[in-house]
């Protein structure tokens, strides 16, 4: 091999075999054993021309060298080591605290005793948002704060006092320096008149009873019915529950943009399971029992059939719409029921045929000052008077009276 060695010049050209010279130094270096690669390097790359191992196209991986952890630097107060130094430092600290506290007390004393922060007259108490709440009522709340420093007025306590007034639903009290107190109130909104004995007042949606304002007459904001069944002695929770029934009743009647509630003059919510309403009809009002649901459907049925009922029974006083497939008509007390044609098949039963616009004509049976008209109408929910009791009433109405007028 040409690369392994050369013959010596002039060493006997005629000899059978030449003696190989020792390999040159450059060739010996090429065959020298390389240094071992670091652990894992053979799997990650190969040896490059410089003799280092690296992944293909990747920089040489640096060998991890642990670094010394740097100590945390903490800020420490320079505390004198000597006793005298510590005494001086403590004295300086106390002086600083004393100066700060004295400054605060001086500022507080200036604010408390400065006449510029004194509420001298009632004109320094401003009122906003009131329509029914009078200024005199507000001044009664702030009467003890006149000629008092504005910083001594307990705002939270005054706000609570204001919200105890019937017309005030929410109040805000704030200081306006140097010496003004501003009061902003949100008043309650009445939704009905309320009758308590011979007195008429107002009530809001939460059942809070309100005084009657002086400017009610002719004000369109007060065009709503008179409500009965609420008493001042009732707990507020009871009044609130009955007001919820009233609100549902009015909202149902006025559903779809109609204003049916304008025909109602009085609503009785003393029994939440039977809402009763007085509806204007000519010169007299008719009491209608609506039950506790389906208010709009029952009102429409009453409105459609009222002309025929009035024509047949001019002294009609009450209509009960709570029962399924029947309507109870009641005459004015002491008024006899007019006798019509017989539709029940019984002689002398004072039956009259009712032909309402939306009700199938059926028999009408005479009862003591009442007329029961069985009518086909949408099914109603359960009511306080059961069907058995109604059947007993009808049976008693059909029972013939004795000739001598003695009750059986």
How does this structure look, described?
This protein has helices spanning 25-30, 41-44, 83-113, 135-141, 155-163, 236-253, 295-312, 387-398, and strands at 46-47, 53-54, 118-119, 125-128, 148-149, 168-176, 180-187, 190-196, 199-204, 209-210, 226-228, 264-268, 276-281, 284-289, 316-320, 326-331, 364-367, 370-374. With 408 residues, it is α+β, with helices and mostly antiparallel strands. Among the domains are: 118-187, Ubiquitin-like (UB roll) (Roll), CATH 3.10.20.310; 189-272, no CATH class; 274-399, no CATH class. The strands form four sheets. The chain has an eleven-stranded mixed beta sheet, with helices on both faces. Strands 4-7-6 form a three-stranded mixed beta sheet, with helices on one face. The radius of gyration is 52 Å and the shape is elongated.
Care to give the gist of this entry?
With 408 residues, the chain is of the alpha+beta class. It has helices at 25-30, 41-44, 83-113, 135-141, 155-163, 236-253, 295-312, 387-398; strands spanning 46-47, 53-54, 118-119, 125-128, 148-149, 168-176, 180-187, 190-196, 199-204, 209-210, 226-228, 264-268, 276-281, 284-289, 316-320, 326-331, 364-367, 370-374.
């Amino acid at each position: 091999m040409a690369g392994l060695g050369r013959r010596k010049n002039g060493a006997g050209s005629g000899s059978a075999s030449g003696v190989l010279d020792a390999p040159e130094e450059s060739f010996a270096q090429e065959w020298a054993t390389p240094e071992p690669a670091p652990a894992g390097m053979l799997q990650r790359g190969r040896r490059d021309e410089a003799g280092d191992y690296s992944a293909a196209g990747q920089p040489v991986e640096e060998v991890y060298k642990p670094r010394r952890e740097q100590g945390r630097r903490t800020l420490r107060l320079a505390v004198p080591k000597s006793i005298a130094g510590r005494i001086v430092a403590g004295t300086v600290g106390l002086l600083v605290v004393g100066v700060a506290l004295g400054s605060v007390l001086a500022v507080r004393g200036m604010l408390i005793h400065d006449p510029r922060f004194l509420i001298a007259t009632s004109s320094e108490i401003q009122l906003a948002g009131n329509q029914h709440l009078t200024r005199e009522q507000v001044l009664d709340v702030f009467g003890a704060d006149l000629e008092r420093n504005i910083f001594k007025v307990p705002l939270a306590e005054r706000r609570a006092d204001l919200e105890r007034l019937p017309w005030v639903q929410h109040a805000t009290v704030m200081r306006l320096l140097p010496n003004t107190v501003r009061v902003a109130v949100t008043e309650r909104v009445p939704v009905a008149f309320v009758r308590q004995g011979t007195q008429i007042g107002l009530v809001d949606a939460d059942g809070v009873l309100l005084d009657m304002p002086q400017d009610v007459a002719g004000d369109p904001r007060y065009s709503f019915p008179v409500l009965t069944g609420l008493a001042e002695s009732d707990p507020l929770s009871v009044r609130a529950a009955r007001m919820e029934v009233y609100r549902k009743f009015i909202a149902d009647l006025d559903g779809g943009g109609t204003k049916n509630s304008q025909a109602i003059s009085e609503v009785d919510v003393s029994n939440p399971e039977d809402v009763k309403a007085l509806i204007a009809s000519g010169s007299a009002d008719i009491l209608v029992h609506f039950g506790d649901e389906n208010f709009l459907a029952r009102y429409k049925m009453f409105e459609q059939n009222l002309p025929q009922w009035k024509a047949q029974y001019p002294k009609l006083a009450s209509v009960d719409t709570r029962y399924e497939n029947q309507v109870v008509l009641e005459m004015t007390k002491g008024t006899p029921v007019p006798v019509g044609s017989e539709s029940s098949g019984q002689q002398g039963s004072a039956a009259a045929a009712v032909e309402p616009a939306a009700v199938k004509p059926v028999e009408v049976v005479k009862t003591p000052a009442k007329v029961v008209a069985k009518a086909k109408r949408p099914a109603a929910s359960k009511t306080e008077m059961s069907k058995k009791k109604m059947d007993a009433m009808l049976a008693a109405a059909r029972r013939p009276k004795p000739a001598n007028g003695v009750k059986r």
